[in-house]
Design goal:
By secondary structure, the chain is α+β, with helices and mostly antiparallel strands. Helix content is 37%, strand content 23%. Helix 12 links the parallel strand 12 and strand 13. The longest helix has 18 residues. It binds histidyl-adenosine monophosphate (HAM). The site of histidyl-adenosine monophosphate (HAM) has 27 residues, from strand 6, strand 10, strand 11 and helix 11.
């Protein structure tokens, strides 16, 4: 037998209702926030991610599924959703639309990571990218949307936030940080040495305890913002407070992707056994569209891991709404297949969920199966009923049984459901 590849998961037929519950909330929020769905290919030219996500990121350095296709082009399975959406924005002239353009997506993402609970090689993200506004209102709208998303599951999230600043304050800060880090470099991990060269900010984000201990007294981003960035960050924090959006400031939060420029954030799940994992994260990235060859466009967005979110919901005992698709089971005690299937057709056309016997079971076994399906009605059709143009309907909830005209069946069930 060929097994499933490491780091991937099947969503089994009896588990998919959990995904549907999450997707339903996403669609509900899309309506409330006027988000338009965007779907981009599962693979792109490798260069898009190298230029977009950045060559100092672990994603580009270590985790991409990259291969040459039969035409010798370097292709990469998307490790995240943002770069593809930004490419599409430029390529399809979406900037000609009235701004802001608020897009959302549900997409598989591929990262060659060391698999563990909540860390997969194929995962799925719900993402939002909001193009066109550099105003804090759009940052706040992203926080409100995510807050509403969590609220729909009875959770009140806390955002870990930080502010990366514009090119000017970033340049000054990076110089300061480089100056601080340099004497420690020989004792820091190879990744940090690489980050020092390519994007020193990412040193702050190193998971190694040793490196972290050397960074305790490092200059803080929030103390080094220019007046305009500091004002914007203050406005965001004040508005979050006014709106009851819970947050804490994490001065080391820089995120693992290179494109961020302004506010950045994560929603963390702090678990006693598995430690800290991010359920979602994002921020503002005002240079990406231009860096990819488009007209300078401010954007803010986020991505949330569906698998991680479902694992989290399970861990807090969230009860997912059950899906019961079967309203009626038609139990057949006749060889007249056309009569049975026509009955099923009439009921299905009226929007009812209907099952009939596809296994040539005896009547008793059919009742047992109908019981397993926990359907509300069982319609029994024997030769006797058929000859009289009638059916017997058992209402499993009301524990009643009636013989009615076949032509009344749909109405009878709809009235009682
Ligand atoms: P990210 O933080 O790399 O951001 O991923 C977003 C979320 O995807 C994470 O918080 C996590 O829940 C989930 N995730 C990431 N990697 C894995 C994995 N290996 N297994 C399971 N879940 C995972 C981005 O990807 C950005 N594109 C987000 C963004 C959109 N920023 C602005 N717009």
């Amino acid at each position: 037998m060929v097994n499933i590849p490491k780091g991937t998961k099947d969503v089994l037929p009896y588990d998919s209702y959990k995904w549907h519950a999450v997707y339903k909330v996403i669609d509900k929020l899309a309506k409330r926030y006027n988000l338009k769905e965007i779907m981009t290919p599962t693979f792109e030219h490798t260069e898009l991610f190298v230029r977009g996500v950045g060559d100092s990121s672990d994603i580009v350095n270590k985790e991409m599924y990259t291969f040459l296709d039969k035409g010798e082009r370097s292709i990469t399975l998307k490790p995240e959703g943002t770069a593809g959406v930004a490419r599409s924005f430029i390529e399809n002239g979406l900037f000609n639309n009235a701004m802001p353009l608020k897009t959302y997506y549900k997409t598989p993402c591929f990262r060659y990571e060391k698999p563990q609970a909540g860390r997969l090689r194929e995962h799925h993200q719900f993402g939002v990218e909001m193009f066109g506004s550099d105003n804090p209102e759009s940052d706040i709208e992203i926080f409100m949307l995510l807050n509403d998303f969590f609220n729909e599951f009875g959770i009140s999230p806390t955002f870990s936030i930080n502010y990366l600043g514009c090119k000017e304050c970033n340049t000054v800060y990076k110089d300061k940080l480089r100056g601080y880090v340099k004497p420690y470099l020989k004792n820091m991990c190879p990744d940090c040495n690489n980050r020092y060269e390519k994007n020193v900010l990412r040193v702050l984000d190193c998971k190694s305890r040793e490196c972290q201990s050397m960074l305790v007294d490092a200059p803080k981003l929030s103390d080094n913002l220019c007046t305009s960035c500091a004002e914007k960050f203050d406005k965001i924090k004040q508005t979050m407070q006014d709106l009851g959006l819970k947050f804490r400031i994490d001065t080391n939060l820089v995120r693992g992707l290179d494109y961020y420029t302004g506010v950045v954030f994560e929603i963390l799940n702090i678990d006693k056994t598995s430690g800290q994992t991010a359920l979602g994260g994002g921020g503002r990235y005002n240079n990406l569209v231009e860096d990819l060859g488009g007209k300078s466009t401010p954007v803010v967005g986020f991505g949330l891991g569906i698998e991680r979110f479902i694992l989290y919901l399970e861990s807090i005992g969230y009860v997912f709404p059950e899906e019961n698709n079967v309203d009626v089971y038609v139990a057949s005690a006749t060889d007249n297949m056309s009569f049975i299937l026509n009955l099923a057709k009439l009921m299905r056309n009226a929007g009812l969920g209907v099952e009939t016997d596809l296994m040539a079971r005896g009547l008793k076994a059919q009742f047992k199966y109908a019981d397993k399906l926990s359907c509300r009605f069982v319609v029994i059709v024997g030769e006797d009923e058929m000859n009289a143009g009638e059916v017997t309907v058992k209402d499993m909830k009301a524990s009643t049984q009636e013989r009615i005209k076949e032509c009344q069946l749909v109405q009878y069930i709809l009235e009682r459901l």
